[in-house]
Amino acid sequence: MKVKELIEMFNQDDMDKEVYLSKDGEGNGFRLLSDSSDQICVKREGGQVDIFNEDEPEEFEGEEIKKVVVLWPSY
Q: 40 in a domain, yes or no?
């Protein structure tokens, strides 16, 4: 999902609702959304994804790299 799609979805809803994140795809637990951050997403061979801070000095030759937003649950 892209940020603009998330905004469109939330614009159709009550702005006073809290947002929760599912622990997994089966709904085995939930956490309240507490924060978000801009990160770098690196897709590796085999579908693995690694997330790095934008200021981390890394070289990712031959990898798919994107700027992404990460949503963080409360603990």
A: yes
The CA–CA distances, whole Å, from 15 to 1, 3, 19, 58, 62 equal 20, 16, 10, 38, 42
What DSSP state is assigned to residue 56? Answer: -
Q: What is the pLDDT of residues 53-72, one digit of tens each?
A: 877 766 766 578 888 999 99
Is residue 44 within 8 A of residue 50, CB to CB? The reply is yes
Contact 54, 18 (CB under 8 A): no
Domain range for 64: 35-75
Total number of domains in the chain: 1
Tell me the whole-structure pTM to 2 decimals.
Answer: 0.73
Q: Is residue 41 in a domain?
A: yes
43 part of a folded domain: yes
